[in-house]
Amino acid sequence: MFSKILIANRGEIACRIIQTAHRMGIRCVAVYSEADANARHVAMADEAFHIGPAPSSESYLRADKIIEIAKKSGAQAIHPGYGFLSENTGFAEACEANDLVFIGPPSSAIAAMGSKSAAKAIMEKAGVPLVPGYHGDDQSPDTLRKEAEKCGFPLLLKAVAGGGGKGMRVVERMEDFDDALAAAKRESKNAFGNPDMLIERYLTQPRHVEIQVFCDQDGHGVYLAERDCSVQRRHQKVLEEAPAPGLSEETRKAMGEAAVKAAQAINYVGAGTVEFLYDVDGSFFFMEMNTRLQVEHPVTEMVTGQDLVEWQLKVAWGEPLPLEQSQVKTRGHALEARIYAEDPDQDFLPATGNLRYLSTPDESAHVRVDTGVTEGDDISIHYDPMIAKLIVWDETRDQAINRMVQALEHYRIAGVKTNIRFLHALADAQPFREAELTTGFIEDHRDLLFPASKLDTHKALVLAAGFVLEQRKSREVVSTDPWSPFGRQNSWRMNSEYAQPLQLQVGEDIHDLKVLERDDRYQVYVGDSVYNLTARLDDDYLQAVINGHRISVHGNLHNDQLVLFYEGDTFNCTVYKESYGFEEMAGEGSLAAPMNGAIVAVQAKVGDRVTAGQSLVIMEAMKMEHAIKAPADGVVTEIFFAEGDQVSEGAELIAIEVDEEEAS
């Protein structure tokens, strides 16, 4: 077995690989960019090498530097993880040329599957069913337009060299085709250096079901169950599970055998995933093959009891597959939720910030957390915004869902917006519990997945007041005289009862509270209502009784920013002071950047008349494009940035003179 490997990746997947390698007695070499100098994967590795500036194009995508470091460190092999260089044919070839084992498939297999159009031709020859569409080399707009008409609508434009939802657009009608094609090509070229597209019929109620395959160097192949990855946003997976609910044993077997046939058709070696679209009538069609370990591989590990990274290392060393097909068994049900720094309420816009508070559920045989961050780390614009993967297992799907709901309630993050509340609503939604799964699940059930807060506003304000006051008391110096009223940690005043004011800002609203503090309780006045409150704060855990209702929350108070966590929900407020001088970041007729990022295109010029909803600026952040639209009808008066400029969240991009009737 290898004695030392280099991991050409970062974040949770680098940490995941290190864990298995160390268990097998293998030393690990990490690489890191300037942004990752203090990252968790660097601390976990046996040694680490600086590789370049923060942008991935200057660090984690520098194949030449990675090869140089691998040779310098004495590593015998390179594990690419997923993303970055994991499916780069040139990198695999460079490893082979430098006598380094690439822990993945041969470069020829990556090349065969790297082009979605070429892959479909291979699959068609191998007898694997395909979705109708166009996968040809002629990429002229006229040809693509004609093929789109042949395919019919709705259709899917997909980057030939892509993945992860980038360079992908659903087109509902021919009138939208040209704009969608231009956007998909531009995004694909920026992400993959290749603007070529393929066209597929877009199935209206499909499920995304994929098969984990493994092949050794002797040509033997097995499939290790299937995963359902239907719940997606922006064509990117959000929640995955294994096994896929509702599939017959005959379908499972047929899909598994088709997946192995697909892998063997390209002389595959190592871990791979064959993705299928599964239709309501039970038919399935080859979509693509990912020639690497998948983000969602832990759910397969949980139901099979196998360590897929260990399998990768053994196969790369030349050992046969650990199991034959008849020996592969599954037990129970597993779910994985991807915890992202993003704002679901703003169309899942990526978020950046500091993880000033991070508390994760306790790990056990039922709960697993794969992460690459620790409290205090920054989520930057340079890399994917995934914070962690939360994986749960139990005997049945219902029990596993209950585990997931509970674990999400115990996952608490402050300092950056996350999708935890959304994931909690998703896992607990009745249609999900009943396995009514399609790739349009989120759009079909938006009302269920974006619910109102579970905390009544007044009750939340009372809890916030209790948290703030109890934390203040815990930090006060106690008098040495236990009988002195001046040593009491409350608002005692001689000959009077003093109701201290407390202002809490929630969104744009400022709430004036008055708190009368006694030895063992508070009276909190909110508007015309009065609440009797007893509260006890233990570190970040507040136990409270409000008018006889016992309720407990966790919280984090930092620089007057308070976040309360309650059953997967959050309540955010600011301990308000007038001296803060809160100001609007942008006026009524202006456009502000919703995130840190780069300007890809400015689609207006000074003097243009624009209409509400018209796309004016295209921004790129975390490798995804986002359209910034006009808030109202009017005329563009100023443009503050140009194509290629980097902008910060809140920066004014364009000024618009709003029409008078709009302004009124």
TrEMBL record:
Keywords: ATP-binding, Biotin, Ligase, Nucleotide-binding, Transit peptide. InterPro entries: ATP-grasp, ATP_grasp_subdomain_1, BC-like_N, Biotin_BS, Biotin_carboxylase_complex, Biotin_carboxylation_dom, Biotin_COase_C, Biotin_lipoyl. It holds the Pfam family CPSase_L_D2. Its cofactor is biotin. Pathway: Lipid metabolism; malonyl-CoA biosynthesis; malonyl-CoA from acetyl-CoA: step 1/1. SUPFAM superfamilies: Glutathione synthetase ATP-binding domain-like, PreATP-grasp domain, Rudiment single hybrid motif, Single hybrid motif. The keyword Ligase applies. Residues 580-657 form the Lipoyl-binding domain. CDD domains: biotinyl_domain. Signal peptide: none annotated. SMART domains: Biotin_carb_C (SM00878), GARS_A (SM01209). Residues 120-317 form the ATP-grasp domain. Residues 1-447 form the Biotin carboxylation domain. GO terms for molecular function: ATP binding; biotin carboxylase activity; metal ion binding. It catalyses: N(6)-biotinyl-L-lysyl-[protein] + hydrogencarbonate + ATP = N(6)-carboxybiotinyl-L-lysyl-[protein] + ADP + phosphate + H(+). The keyword Nucleotide-binding applies. This protein is a component of the acetyl coenzyme A carboxylase complex; first, biotin carboxylase catalyzes the carboxylation of the carrier protein and then the transcarboxylase transfers the carboxyl group to form malonyl-CoA. Acetyl-CoA carboxylase is a heterohexamer of biotin carboxyl carrier protein, biotin carboxylase and the two subunits of carboxyl transferase in a 2:2 complex. This is Biotin carboxylase. It comes from Marinobacter subterrani.
